[in-house]
Amino acid sequence: MKKSTPIILFFAAIAVRLVVYFATHYAVDDAFITFRYAANIAHGNGLVYNLGERVLGTSTPLFTLLIALFNLIGIDSITAALFFNLTAAGLTTVILYRWSQHLDLGRFAILPAVIYIVFPRSVICDIAGMETALFALLVTSGMYLLFRGEHFAAITVASLATVARPEGWALLALILAAIVFRDRRQLVLKAVPVLLIAGNWLLFAQAYFGSVVPNSLTAKMALYSGYERFSSWQNPAITLGLNSPFGWIIWPLFLLGLIFAFRRDRLLGIIAVWCGAYLGALIVSGTHVFFWYPAPVYPTSFVIVTIAVVRLLLWLPFRRAATTTWVPAVVSILVVVASLIHLTGRFDNLRLEMASYHDIHIAAADYLTQHARPNDRVLAEDIGYFGYYFRGRIIDRDGLVTPQAASYNRAGEYRRFADSTNTEWLFIDPDYPTSLPIVTASDFAERYEMIPLPRAGDNPCHQLYRRTQR
Questions:
Q1: Which residues, including other chains, have CB under 8 Å from residue 206's CB and lie 6 or more apart?
Q2: What is the pLDDT of residues 346-369, one digit of tens each?
Q3: What is the DSSP string of 240-282?
Q4: What is the pLDDT of residues 400-450, one digit of tens each?
Q5: Which residues pair with 350 in a beta bridge?
Q6: Between the CA atoms of 50, 53, 58 and 60, what dihedral angle is there, to the nearest 10 degrees?
Q7: Are 41 and 68 spatial neighbours (Cβ–Cβ below 8 Å)?
Q8: Taking Cα atoms as reference points, which of 436, 440, 168, 433 lies closest to residue 297?
Q9: C-alpha to C-alpha distance for 157 and 107, rounded to whole angstroms
Q10: CA–CA gap between residue 124 and residue 346 (Å, rounded)
Q11: What are 396's strand-pairing partners?
Q12: CA angle 300–304–306, rounded 5-degree value
């Protein structure tokens, strides 16, 4: 491969994501929770969602701080998140290529990078405003550095991962365990990044929030224990992408690649097992899996998949020509074409979701900004877009930034929690299992009136209600 290949791959990853972003302007609701935290930091209000309430409702303090730094110099959160995610995606692509080169995969060294560049799930996650691309970069680079024997750098990256996502602690545990078993030299020096990065964050979190565990984690566990939103099939389907042909092709190859990886190098096999365990934990977990949860381990998994492809081709009678000339190019072209067809087919759904946020959530936020009194409180679900554009005090019905909701959600007492808050406004989806008991109460119509939102008529979902009885 030419020396320019990494540069081409870097910008190809960015280009594909930019095309999808400008075609859809997609960003998930949860990202805007982080954006509100970042805005409060930039304005000197601290790492909080509601002013004066020290609750860690975002699970990515590192990404929040990065966004806040851009806010301080006048760059908005959406632009900042896109910049970090595009850069992270480009770097991940280069690492995948370099890793494959070190594995002597020949012309197939480009395949993991190509898969990641156009893999529909990864592309959508990387433009969604979340920290997914950053965490995927940390996971991929941490694994690569561990495999290369660059232990201090691997520990540093893994320590950063613990502040990027709670799952980063699992990455750090793997890397520390592997290093202790393989090379015990200078362990004290190697522990410095853990103490300076992960250790200092734990001290700060305990002192500032009173807990090292993000409230968003405990809130989700309490919320999802109270009702079933997804069927048992949907967790594996979402985790492995079984709603498209890609999942049915990639993950059987991954299992084969895991076996081949162990035969080739035990450490590589352990890395593959860690990726499989990560995905397996999501499948059997008590929480519901959203499409961005498994995405950070996809890039490393694509390396294992490519190992399987190469080994399988070695069994074919035309293997010499296949591994040196046209097969890598054909496979790469097929991956690109099939992925882009699948991606473009998702555009309408992504645009429809964005229309819901703009027509309803932002419309409700605009209305409250104009009509709510300074001390009014809003009981709300899906507090991302809504809370970013309306900066008043929000009581989170799901509990992410409102710890008091957890005990009610765990018991399924959604109406009791709503009554206990005694808020002046409600912004909820009447059809949600958690909202149905509230809106079907016999006295609900007497206590609340619905506010018609001028842009929400064609796309009803959440509704805004004002309390009429004091």
A1: 212
A2: 899 999 889 888 889 999 999 999
A3: HTTTSHHHHHHHHHHHHHHHHHHHH-HHHHHHHHHHHHHHHHH
A4: 999 999 999 988 899 999 999 999 999 999 888 889 999 999 889 889 999
A5: none
A6: 120
A7: yes
A8: 168
A9: 29
A10: 10
A11: 380
A12: 110
> Phi/psi zone of residue 42: left (φ > 0), alpha (ψ -120 to 50 degrees), beta?
alpha
Question: In sequence order, what are the residues at sequence separation of 6 or more whose Cβ sits closer than 8 angstroms to the Cβ of residue 445?
Answer: none
Which residues are within 8 A (CB) of 329 and not within 5 positions of it... i.e. 6 or more apart? 107
Question: Helix (H, G, I), strand (E, B), or coil: what is residue 463?
Answer: strand
Dist. CA 401–CA 199, nearest whole Å: 24
Q: Is residue 333 part of a domain?
A: no
Question: Hunting for tokens 């473009």 — which residue is that?
Answer: 344
Dihedral over Cα of 131, 135, 136, 137: its sign: positive
Give the count of beta carbons closer than 10 Å to the beta carbon of residue 337: 11
Question: What amino acid occupies position 81?
Answer: A
End-to-end CA distance of the chain: 72
Confidence of residue 456 (pLDDT cuts 50, 70, 90): low
Q: Is residue 463 part of a domain?
A: no
Structure tokens of 375? Answer: 């001390």
CB neighbour class for 460 (10 Å; exposed up to 12, middle 13-18, buried from 19): middle
Residue 416 located in a structural domain? no
- Residues 308-318 have pLDDT tens digits of 998 888 776 65
Closest CA to 55 of 222, 226, 217, 163: 217
Q: Compute the CA torsion angle 346, 351, 356, 358 (nearest 10 deg).
A: 150
Q: Whose CA is closest to 122, among 301, 310, 306, 375?
A: 301
- Residue 170 C-alpha from the chain's centroid: 16
User: Chain-wide mean pLDDT for the chain?
Assistant: 90
- Chain centre to alpha carbon of residue 92: 15
**Euclidean distance between CA atoms 38 and 48, whole angstroms:** 8
Residue 38 placed within a domain: yes
pLDDT at residue 167 is higher than 60: yes
Asked if residues 305 and 115 have their Cβ atoms less than 8 Å apart, the reply is: yes
Residue type, 349: N
Which of 50, 88, 159, 111 has its CA nearest to residue 390?
50
Q: Please state the domain count of the chain.
A: 1
Q: At what angle do helices 298-313 and 111-118 cross, to 10 degrees?
A: 130
Q: Which of 239, 165, 130, 215 is nearest to 398 (CA)?
A: 215
| Domain extent at residue 27 | 5-214+342-351
Decide if 12 contacts 115 (C-beta within 8 A): no
CA 285 to mean position of chain CA atoms: 16
For residue 186, the model assigns a pLDDT of: 80
Instruction: List beta partners, residue 466.
Output: 425, 449
